[in-house]
Design goal:
Blueprint lengths: L6 E10 L2 E10 L2 E7 L2 E8 L4 H11 L9 E8 L4 E7 L1 H8 L19 H4 L15 H13 L2 H6 L3 E7 L3 E8 L2 H14 L7 E4 L5 H10 L3 E4 L5 H10 L2 E7 L2 E6 L6
């Protein structure tokens, strides 16, 4: 845990129907977070200072730095005026593999292509097998998205953060994480699931548009289905198709659109 709250109160002048008055608004915090492996920075992004161990583990998993939380033999957070370092110490085998692909990258809010060293890696399709699930009904996908909306406490307070959730037909919404960055929210969710020993045999829920990096992270988790409130990019559709991921997007109360592998939706 850090000493920084995930939100703050800002003084505003609220204008409504031509009248202005002083008021307050809850806004999300964001700070520079460096993911550090064995004393070398792997990535720097702007993130909400909450669930940072989940973020560090999740990003390390979805970017292929580690294969499981057990590949991390030590973890600590170090705060300064400049930001927060999330420091991980890897087991020797993983440390040696990372040394061969080490690259420092400073990115904007929600960095999605951390540690990428070539254009070919941008188009990578993770080779991990996807988990099997029974076909879902349309109503289940819509219910899942509604359940995610109901637990977005930071989002409801600020209207300025993204969320990622994991839903199954048997358990409903299992877990959710929020962050100013959509990639960070997914990595936090991936890390939390891995630390709790949860397999991604269900639906990955997203409150954002679907870009290629999010599909890659879903495939790296083994998630067979993505459901998102906004539309995907062309490359995201192609990546989902190549990875075997069912991509449902523009999910609303009255329906949604399926862009790839519709066999998982009854």
């Amino acid at each position: 845990m850090t000493g920084r709250p995930p939100s703050a109160v800002a003084q505003v002048i609220r204008v409504r129907q031509g009248a202005a008055a002083p008021d307050v608004r809850t806004v999300p915090d964001e700070t520079a977070v460096a993911i550090v492996h064995d004393a070398s920075t792997y990535a720097v992004m702007m993130a909400t200072p909450a669930d940072l161990e989940d973020l560090a583990i999740g990003l390390s998993l979805t970017e292929g730095v580690i294969g499981a939380p057990s590949d991390v033999q030590g973890f600590e957070l170090s705060e300064s005026e400049l930001g927060i370092e999330a420091r991980l110490w890897l087991v020797p085998q993983r440390a040696a593999a990372l040394a061969r692909r080490r690259r420092m990258m400073a990115g904007p809010t929600g960095c999605g292509l951390c540690g990428v060293e070539s254009l070919e890696e941008v188009r990578r399709t993770p080779s991990r097998p996807l988990f099997d699930i029974a076909p879902l009904t349309a109503a289940q996908i819509q219910t899942a998205m509604a359940e995610l909306a109901s637990v977005q406490t930071l989002g409801q307070a600020t209207r300025a953060v993204h969320a990622a959730g994991f839903w199954t037909a048997e358990r409903g919404l299992v877990l959710a994480r929020e962050d100013v960055g959509r990639h960070n929210a997914v990595d936090k969710l991936a890390g939390a699931m891995a630390r709790q020993g949860l397999e991604a045999a269900g639906v990955l829920l997203l409150t954002s548009r679907v870009s290629v990096e999010l599909v890659q992270k879903a495939a790296a988790m083994g998630a067979p289905v993505i459901a998102a409130v906004s539309a995907p990019t062309r490359l995201a559709i192609a990546t989902a198709d190549a990875a075997g991921v069912t991509l449902a997007a523009v999910v609303r109360a009255d329906g949604f659109e399926i862009f790839s592998h519709p066999r998982r939706v009854a």
